[in-house]
Amino acid sequence: MSQSNSPSSPQPPKRIAQTIHLKPSSVPEYERIHASVWPSVLAQIKDSNITDYSIFFDEHSSTLFATFKYVVQDWEGDMRRMRENAEVRRWWDITDAMQESRVPGATGSKDGEWWTGLAEVFRME
Fold this sequence. Notes:
Elements: E1 14-22, H1 27-34, H2 39-47, E2 50-58, E3 63-70, H3 75-84, H4 86-96, E4 99-100, E5 116-117
Antiparallel strand pairs: 1-3, 1-4, 1-5, 2-3
C-alpha cells in the first residue's frame, strides 16, 4: 500500500536547527530566564506545533544552537500566530537584546528571520 501526500495523510515532523550569537555579557541572564520560561511562551510554542525543542550553548564561540520538530504543515500560519502573541513578543524583546543575529538586515524575532537556519546534512534514526 503506497502512502498518499493528501492533507489527511500524516506528515513526518520537520526537523529544524538554528544558530545565533549570544552576547558574552548576557550569558548568565539568558541562562537564568531560560531556567523558568514564562508559561504563556511555552504554551504558544506548543500551540504552534513545535515539539522536542532544545537550545544548546557553545561557550567558546558564544553560539546558541536550537533544534526542534515542527509537526504540522502550516509553518507560516503558526509562526504568524506566534509573532502575534503579546507575551511572546515581550519575551523576544528581552532575549533579542541579548543576541546578535547573523541574518543580514535582521532587526528582531518579531519582524522576521532572526536566528540563522541550518541545512541538515546527515541524520541517522
